[in-house]
Amino acid sequence: MFGLEKPAGRREPGGSGGFPKMASVGDFNVLSSSIPATKVELSVSCRNLLDRDTFSKSDPICVLYTQAIGNKEWREFGRTEVIDNTLNPDFVRKFIMDYFFEERENLRFDFYDVDSKSPNLSKHDFLGQMFCTLGEIVGSQGSRLEKSIVGIPGKKCGTVIVTAEELGCCRDSVLMQFCANKLDKKDFFGKSDPFLVFHRSNEDGSFTICHKTEVIKNTLNPVWQAFKISVRALCNGDYDRTIKVEVYDWDRDGSHDFIGEFTTSYRELSRGQSQFNVYEVINPKKKGKKKKYVNSGTVTLLSFLIETEVSFLDYIKGGTQINFTVAIDFTASNGNPSQPTSLHYMNPYQLNAYGMALKAVGEIIQDYDSDKMFPALGFGARLPPDGRVSHEFALNGNPQNPYCHGIDGVMEAYYRSLKSVQLYGPTNFAPVINHVARYAASVKDGSQYFVLLIITDGVISDMAQTKESIVNASKLPMSIIIVGVGPAEFDAMEELDGDVVRISSRGKFAERDIVQFVPFRDYIDRSGNHVLSMARLAKDVLAEIPEQFLSYMRVRGIKPSPAPPPYTPPVHVLQTQI
């Protein structure tokens, strides 16, 4: 049920100009767990964008926003790459989304001309935007929606074309390498600077770009680096679908010269290096004009290796356990628990925000933990009997054994400690992060993965120590979910969530992004439907866990254990007496 294909993990540092590297997001869907969602891949192209650069053309990027259910707030979903010097971009990076027939998913596509490496969009020129719904794209003829870009009064901002394609569930990737020989010379002073562009064909005969190689400078006989692409991206799992490959000579001004093209298919490529995989590069214009035209060079497939991508569920099936720890903020800023205004108020009729966040996340994660015993910690309180301040105390009052049975056991221990401890401060996260990290450091073989849920009302006091703890923990099999409750500003938390800029401490960057932060207020259902609020919260905070989990396993080269054979009951042989 965890979505596992992420050609686009939420966002990673890197990519063009310091922009996030990937263009889509995780896909755990709690609200529709009974009906597996269809996944659609959105491809974005623009025509006749505004030109905001004086001496060259714009360098566009597309940013997709989705609207939270229930409230009207737009949240960034992902970004494409930046394409230099063009008003007619065909973005390579796709957005992969769950599609539900019964849900209205509002989308907003914003376009910017990128002027620097800053990931902050306000530092770049706005080129306009387009609003639509996912259903509108899927429901258009050929699932291709063409709409005017708006947002700059009195200006024609061009058009955007968004195409949706339903994804087949293909988990194979291929590692391919190509070289070329005797390509046409296109540059006046030197040889060509060739690169390849791969397109897969769509149902309606049109083509969608799916990969660009790097540029090899000043040669007519380039050898490109091997590259990995999912079979889904290359041909949507249809082995006979046409793949068109175009060869270009790179030019600094963006007007790359067309050398020629050829077509193939996954089935042909899968034969590997052979005489079948040497392709003549043909330029149709030249062919039409010159009688003696043979070709514009050849492209040869050097290697073709199929790899099957493993999924989160492969590890779960192989026995990997998810260990869930919860840490709750007991600082005084939450308010007196006996007062209805307190975030810790114990209302006999409904859960408070802490209880809702805990139950929402815990009830899903507990399915992946076989013993259902969860350590539950508190921080920022004065403890009986002597009033000492602790940033790492057991909610059940037993520091030697802080485990509670099931989420209900955690809830019970939480309510009990509210009656016995005094809310105090400051808000220190590092001790509870280090607590879980000690356990994670002792099991690095892939058999266990640790998830720490921190629920807090606000401003963090030990930012430097927390950053250092997170950077150290990024090497371990663990993820951290932070849920912010109450009305506070949570700017510091956004910094810990390494989605836009990877977190660092003392010049050392986190090995991977392991923190996901969300403010609980974004998920509160206005009609008072707390079940819906909790389902939405769980869906969002858990979306990144599978990819964070897989990134740890990949970096460490840990493969899933084979799934145990299905249980077959013993056969009782009836012995008959003769």
Automatic annotation (TrEMBL):
Keywords for this protein: Calcium, Metal-binding, Phosphoprotein, Repeat
A GO molecular-function annotation: metal ion binding
Entries under Pfam families matching the protein: C2, Copine
InterPro entries per the UniProt record, alphabetical: C2_dom, C2_domain_sf, C2B_Copine, Copine, Copine_C, VWF_A, vWFA_dom_sf
Example GO biological process: cellular response to calcium ion
Domain C2: 20-147, 156-279
Cellular compartments per GO CC: plasma membrane
Family classification: Belongs to the copine family.
Main function: Probable calcium-dependent phospholipid-binding protein that may play a role in calcium-mediated intracellular processes.
Protein name: Copine-8
VWFA domain residues: 323-524
